[in-house]
Amino acid sequence: MPPFFARPTLSRNLMLIGLVMTVSYIAIALSAPLLQTWGLLADPQSFLTNPIHEPPGADHWLGTSRQGYDVFARTIFGSRAALQVVAMATTLSLCIGVPLGLVSGYFGGRVDRVLLFLMDTIYTLPGLLLSVTLAFVVGRGVFNAAIALSISYVPQYFRVVRNHTTSIKTELFIEAAQAMGASPARILWKYLFLNVIQSVPVLFTLNAADSILILGGLGFLGLGLPPEIPEWGHDLRLALDALPTGVWWTALFPGLAMTLMVVSLSLLGEGLSEWLNPQLQRE
């Protein structure tokens, strides 16, 4: 693989912009308790007796909601929940899809046909619809939301890894390993996995961007995380009632945070795609 700075300017810039934005989100999520001092509730006592919307100002930088939430606190803590669920979901789907793709592509036959049928069946279902259905089954919660999100991404890892495995399992170095008595497990790990894994990081980042949107959709429908856990989709749902009265800040900032996170992961994924695939290089 050529050095990073020998790559075309476009892919390098995409990766750098996406990487900086993604790292910034991670830093904000990890340091959220240090970045705000008011707590999630702006002023619990006053809001219990007189719930109002307070616009952005010196006391509350991004304003408050009718429920008494500080929007800034909810937004930055929402990044923690989003990154936690997305990291769990994409890692889980990767850990399931990659081994299944290796086994299916290497052994072929009936195993390949059964796995292909199962993955094609899952892949035909829209991601949001499948996640909503699974959320009904497993319930709300961080780990449950990760499970609901992960299932729809397993077929993508499976197909990418299976196709690469099928194309290289007939190469001479694989046949030489087989002739020398290497076990299937050793061939799968040492000779196949290390050759097909280069396409996984691109898929990982793009799936992470997509899962942010699906998690927001689950939260908007009331199927994501419990209400006490800050989550952007849930906050957008609460903000709908206030929009007709001119209260714009409760919807703008969670929506903007979600959009920027999706953009950062998408830029990182596109940059990785051009960097790892020479055919996609552009000046």
Q: How would you describe the overall organization of this protein?
A:
- This protein has helices spanning 9-30, 32-35, 44-49, 71-107, 109-123, 127-138, 142-150, 154-168, 172-179, 184-196, 200-220, 232-239, 249-276.
- Helix 4 (71-107) crosses helix 11.
- The chain is built from 13 helices and no strands.
- The protein is mainly α.
- The chain has a single domain (7-280), classed as Orthogonal Bundle (MetI-like fold).
- Helices cover 70% and strands 0% of the residues.
Please supply descriptive tags for the structure shown above.
single chain; 283 residues; mainly alpha; 0% strand; elongated
Outline of the structure:
This protein has a single domain (7-280), classed as Orthogonal Bundle (MetI-like fold), CATH 1.10.3720. It has helices at 9-30, 32-35, 44-49, 71-107, 109-123, 127-138, 142-150, 154-168, 172-179, 184-196, 200-220, 232-239, 249-276.
CATH homologous group name: MetI-like
- Strand segment count: 0
The average pLDDT score comes to 82
At the first level of CATH, the class is: Mainly Alpha
Number of helices: 13
Query: In which range does the helix fraction lie?
Result: 55-70%
Radius of gyration: 23 Å
Please identify, by name, the CATH architecture.
Orthogonal Bundle
Question: What percentage of amino acids are in beta strands?
Answer: under 5%
CATH topology: MetI-like fold
The computed structural class is: mainly alpha
Main sheet: strands, sense, barrel: none
What number of structural domains do the residues give? 1
User: What's the SSE pattern?
Assistant: HHHHHHHHHHHHH
What's the overall geometry?
elongated
Distance between the termini: 18 Å
Low-confidence stretches: 44-50
